[in-house]
Amino acid sequence: MFQYIARRVLQFVPVFFGVTLILFLIANYLPGADPVQLKFGEKAIPPERKAQIVHQLGLDRPWYTQYIDYLGSLSLVHMTYYDGSAPATTTADGSLTADGSVALVVPRVPGPVPSGSVIIHVSDSQIVTRGAWGRFAIGPLAIEFDKPDLGTSLATGRPVIDILGQAYPYTVELALAAILLEIFFGIGAGIISAVKQYSFWDILVTLVSSVLVSLPVFWLGIMLQQVFGIWLKNVTGGAFYLPPLFDGSPGAKFPHFAYLILPAITLASVSTAYAARIMRSQLLEVNGADYIRTARAKGLSAGAVLWKHAMKNAMIPVVTFIGLDFGAMLAGAILTETVFNWPGIGWTIYKAIVGKDFPIVFGGVTVVLFVVMFVNLIVDVSYAFLDPRIRYGGTGE
Amino acid sequence: MTMSEHDKHERHDERALVENHPVRDSRAGLPAGPPITEELAHLHNDAVADRHDNDAAGRTLWGDAWRRLRRNRLALIALIWLVLMVTAAVSADLWVSRLFGDPATINSATAMSNRLLSPTLAHPLGTDTMGRDMLGRLIYGARASLTVGLSAVVISVVIGLLLGALSGFYPGITDSLIMRMTDIFLAFPYILFCILILAMLPTSARGIGPVILSIGLLGWPSFARLFRGSVLSVKENDYVDAGRAIGASDSRLMFRHIMPNAIAPVIVYATMSIGGAILTEAALSFLGLGIQPPEISWGRMITDGQRLMDTNPGLVFWPGLMIILTVVSFTLLGDGLRDALDVKMKD
Amino acid sequence: MAEHLLEVDDLTMYFHTRDGVVKAVDGVSYTLDKGETLGVVGESGSGKSVTALTMMGLIQMPPGKVERGDARFKGRSLITMKEEEVRKIRGNEIAMIFQDPMTSLNPVYRVGLQVAEPLMIHKGMSKRDAIKQAVELLRLVGIPNPEARVKDYPHQFSGGMRQRAMIAMALACDPDVLIADEPTTALDVTIQAQITELMQELQKRTGSAIIMITHDLGVVADMADRILVMYAGRMVEYGTTDEVFYRPLHPYTWGLMDSIPTHNLVEKSELCPIKGQPPSLVNLPSGCSFHPRCPYAQPKCVTDVPAYRLVDGTHGASCHFAGNPDFVRGCSLEVMV
User: Fold this and answer.
1) How far apart are CA A240 and CA A230, in angstroms?
2) CA separation for the pair B320, A224 (Å, rounded)
3) Looking at A176-190, A258-272, B24-38, B238-252, which range is the least confident one?
4) What counts of helices (H) and strands (E) characterise chain A?
């Protein structure tokens, strides 16, 4: 088992670096896009200033240096080496100024060894804080914990990570609600479909899931909004309906969970269809297995055969699928949140797209990407615990 | 898990039974017959029925596949619908404007007077907020979606086949490197990757080209893996060794021997991927990152019509319906192709 | 007349499929008494497994359907019995072991639990007691260190050990009948002998009856008291082991034994090898199902279906010319010429 886990983790490392490299390349070297421009929105930059800004931002440094800096900015943990020399200059407000050149992993920063959190100027326009979340120092070598730096919003100047931090609980809430729906309805429909193969129910589930899988999620959201939010309201004279758009204000008409219903259904729809299909196909495949015949030959009832023997085998790939699908769900949340004004990360990204606030777009996508990668890794590893063949590897006497 | 894996399980539970049962029985000194147990009885009879068909007509790979496809009613309906759409879309420039008026540009003279009309003979599905004919717009939207779908998948297939072939033929570092790259690209959910790229571009640079490229650049890993698998399994076969023995070069082996066998699953998966590409394009256009006005896209039509859902639900409903029908058709066609071609591979 | 433990009487089961009726089992009759071993022999597709599965109610109906006949266990009809009643017998009084122990054991459950399961269902034992009993059962079938092994998963066992575990599972409730469906086919030759030895030993101890379904004549020669030969769903010959081996009546059996017995000749003469494939059960040949492959077929064989008839005591066959000494002499003369 440990071999399996180790292999999986080892495979993850190059993927992590590859993904961050691609993100970095897109941010800085995308043909047709101007990274300097992106940092300033669509304001025009006079050409004289341009070169200066490029230097200030450190964009004229070699790409690998920039890449490492980028990784560093994303990281929670930093290692810094203070070489104890006198600071080069001080700025007007008395804080230290230093010209930090990055040597691979450990940045070497000139200056006396500080205690507590320290503010470092890396370049004129970049202020970097080290140790705001904690510091652990051995002499001149320090391990410092900080919030990852995803840039600052062009519109408000607030750090992107703060904005996203405010939004992510909503997305988590939505995703969890959607997964619960997916588990209950998807697995349930799949089981019934497989047990009563070729019955009316089976055909219905197959048809509906085929359609759901081909559905644009945002369109479904709009339709549901219309039917349950507006048409239902008209038909029942305002007595019973679901709110079409989110309202988080204190005076909102509905309790908070009511606003969750339609978006959760929308988000869950496509995943539920896939889950039902997989559950059905896995159960059918397992039902043809020899050990099911053995179980029946032992005198087990049909119910016991299904729940004790069949399901335990069929569920393993299904659980894996649901875990991996979580990532797709987070990505799809962008569309759902936009339709319902649900203030999660997706909605934040959308507003940033419209408002051309690129740091938020980039930061938001990065965060979602990282969550997806880590969830996938966890699912991969958990497979070792689910399948006894991996958990207790080896054969023979 | 890729989609092809799920579906393979779905369809091949019966086939797996065939493979798990004993076929050869030489111990009694007598040759064994076809396996007949309760589960397989009906499969055997299908085989018998097929033998009748095949003896009648000639036996070629594609002829057989076509015959099988013909029997799959759903796939046929899907194919007919797609052919209709493609014809309408490709020829759109010739007749749409004449029949329904220009669906793209706004005719300021008639814009206000014509807006939001109910369906009439002149405008079978009504008009939009700017007085443009809906049906005409839907047809042009079809053109955009089909173009994006096909082009993006072509790009993915070309890159995927190339890298898959390299990976399969040259195991070792090349193979590992390419496989790592597939892992990396597979970590990106479609929409996120495309949003990333398209949001970075200034509005003037957006349009159908970047959409096709970003979708296409993300889709290659599945094809690479698929093709690599085919290359690896075919490589084992004797006739490849025989070919090598007489001095055939690698690329010759590739094209004459491996391609014909390996191409079938690629075709199936490509067909199904077109549906996914169309959905992605619609989502991107909905967010404003895809096809820009005055170019027409179904996703964009939905965005535009969203505001008027209560009074004119058709503005949102029809484009959505078109997306569903088109994607379902590609999926059904892909399913049908898989059944038609896969069975041949087992023989 | 004393009641037989198991009596199969003209059991006939067809599958009704879209493309035709598959005559999987057609008119099979035999009896089984306590302590007896019956060997059921035939090629793949002869219906030997399906007969047993039909008896146990493990065939899906539809598309299967028992057309006529019966299978009576201790006097009670297994065919007309309600499902809940049959379930009480399955794994309890009649147990079955299957061919491939790797796929016949559930990979996600420990072996001990699977062996203990029949005890929990039929004898109402608690899980703890049942597993204790399972340890003893594993010991009985010759698995070393059963206390530790009981916690293992199937993939941690070797092929031979898995089959032993399956036997333990089948014997858990001390069944009266043990049906073994090709138990050694998927195993190594050396292990095969061990398993058959084990089964014989256990039979001596428990006194249960065994139905041994196989295509391997070597196995039945050793173990069986009586032999039933099946071909294309029909019973072709039935008798004691000695009778079937030394005085086979049906040309198909001759082919299996590789010889034609003659009363007149001292040595056994050479046989024409039987060519061809068994027929499709949907499209059976007219008359005797074996006639296309029988080197001695006569015109009558093409038109008339031979009924099973007793030829010598309890030894019988389904051949128009079974037991006809002129016919037999004619066949061997043909060969010699």
Assistant:
1) 10
2) 13
3) B24-38
4) 16, 9
Is pTM beyond 0.90 here?
A: no
C-alpha dihedral sign at B193, B199, B205, B206: positive
The answer to which of A383-397, B20-34, B152-166, B316-330 has the lowest mean pLDDT is B20-34
Confidence of residue B20 (pLDDT cuts 50, 70, 90): very low
Distance from CA of B255 to the nearest CA of A (A): 32
Residues 28-57 of C with CB under 8 A from A: 56
Q: How far apart are CA B125 and CA B103, in angstroms?
A: 12
The confidence score (pLDDT) of residue C102 equals 85
C309 C-beta neighbours (distance < 10 Å), count: 12
Give the distance from residue C44's alpha carbon to the nearest chain B alpha carbon, in angstroms.
Answer: 6
Which among B25, B44, B45 is the nearest to C44, CB-wise?
B25
**What is the pLDDT, as a whole number, of residue C2?**
62
The pLDDT-based confidence of A114 (bands split at 50, 70, 90) is: low
As beta bridge partners, residue A143 has A79, A136
Identity (one letter) of the amino acid at B159? I
pLDDT digits (tens, 9 = 90+) for B31-58: 233 333 333 333 444 444 444 444 444 4
A158's tokens:
């607030």
Whether the complex's predicted ipTM surpasses the cut of 0.85:
no
Instruction: Give residues with Cβ within 8 angstroms of C192, minimum separation 6.
Output: C184, C219
Q: What does the pLDDT read at residue B45?
A: 42
Q: Are A297 and C91 in contact (CB under 8 A)?
A: yes
* Structural element, H or E, at residue C231: strand C226-231
Which chains does chain B touch, 3 or more C-beta pairs < 8 A? A, C
Strand, coil or helix: C179: strand
Token pair recorded at residue A76: 């929670």
The rounded radius of gyration (Å) of the Cα atoms in chain B is: 25
Q: How far apart are CA C190 and CA C177, in angstroms?
A: 26
Question: For residues B285 and B305, what is the distance between their CA atoms, to the nearest angstrom?
Answer: 13
Find the helix or strand (DSSP H, E) in which C77 lies.
strand C76-77
C299/B110 Cα distance (integer angstroms): 92
Backbone angles phi, psi at C19, to 5 degrees: -100, 10
Cβ–Cβ < 8 Å for C114, C127: no
